[in-house]
Write a structure and sequence with these properties.
The chain is α/β, with parallel strands linked by helices and 263 residues long. It has one domain (38-262): sialyltransferase cstii, chain A, CATH 3.90.1480. Helix content is 33%, strand content 17%. It contains eight helices and twelve strands. The chain has helices at residues 4-36, 56-60, 92-95, 100-105, 119-122, 160-170, 219-235, 257-262, and strands spanning 44-48, 67-70, 86-88, 111-115, 129-132, 134-136, 154-156, 175-179, 187-189, 195-197, 239-242, 253-254. Strands 5-4-3-2-1-8-11-12 form an eight-stranded parallel β-sheet. A two-stranded parallel ribbon has the order 6-7. It is globular. 34% of the residues are buried.
């Protein structure tokens, strides 16, 4: 039998290694979220995707708007004065790319959102950070869910854009405009597992020169997430619009970015 003093020492060691810190991190994030709950009720926002149709000139027009961005959006910073209001990352693979941590730390977002699981992978991120409990399960492809309370968690389905939509809605936005969502990749996987290759497709991933080694994008999974977001939005009194210039995403009602900004 292990002496009780040994057990106590072990507990002290585990606590010193971060259990209390992790608990404090969760508590702090919940307070952050409560401050953002319905803060922008009735307003509109823009979700910036990283598709090849995204241009610096589009972003320049959004300098005075509330915007959400993700992943390696910093690759376009040298071409525009625009910076995102909010930013998010949930994909561990992105944080491990060369230069990602430095790039992410150059993002002057009001708040950065990431997942609480895999904390050690994201610990290099600096700035104001909110950690969300992320439910990630492939069963959601058959039974999609949408979080209406981020203090309990967020549902991850196929694309960080789905996460951003949930975050935006939690903040109260009732019109969400998406730009840069080309929804088309060099390598794409169908629901039946077939691989479609378009050698002319441009990369979604900034300065990665060769996309041939990337895992095929599950476009059908992304579309399923978007379809559920569209259904949920119509049932819960808000709307999602696609203001992308071109692209292949037709789940959401199409609008013209210039018309939205000048309307």
């Amino acid at each position: 039998m292990i002496p009780i003093w040994r057990v106590r020492e072990k507990i002290k060691f585990v606590i010193s290694c971060g259990i209390v810190y992790i608990s404090g991190r969760a508590k702090s994030s919940k307070m952050i979220l409560e401050n953002y709950r319905d803060k922008y009720k009735g307003q509109h926002c823009f979700i910036i995707c990283n598709g090849p149709s995204l241009t610096a000139s589009d972003l320049d027009m959004l300098k005075n708007e509330i915007t959400f961005a993700s992943n390696r959006i910093y690759n376009i910073f040298s071409k525009t004065e625009w910076r995102p209001t909010f930013w998010a990352i949930f994909d561990v693979g992105v944080i491990k790319l060369d230069g990602a941590v430095d790039g992410i730390n150059s993002i002057p977002a009001e708040m950065k959102f990431t997942r609480d699981k895999g904390y050690l992978d994201f610990k290099g991120i600096k700035g104001r950070i909110c950690y969300l409990h992320s439910w990630d399960n492939r069963s959601y492809l058959n039974n999609p869910k949408f979080s209406d309370d981020l203090t309990k968690g967020i549902y991850g389905i196929a694309t960080v854009t789905y996460n951003l939509i949930q975050i935006a809605r939690f903040m109260g936005f009732d019109k969400i405009y998406i730009i840069g969502a080309d929804h088309h990749y060099k390598n794409m996987e169908t629901r039946r597992g077939n691989i479609i290759v378009d050698p002319n497709a441009k990369s979604y991933f900034g300065n990665i020169k060769d996309t041939s080694e990337q895992a095929p994008a599950g476009v059908w999974e992304m579309e399923l997430a978007y379809e559920y977001a569209e259904k949920y939005s119509r049932e819960h009194g808000f709307r999602i619009y696609n203001a992308t210039r071109g692209g292949h995403l037709d789940v959401f009602e199409r609008v013209n970015l210039n018309d939205v900004l000048n309307g």
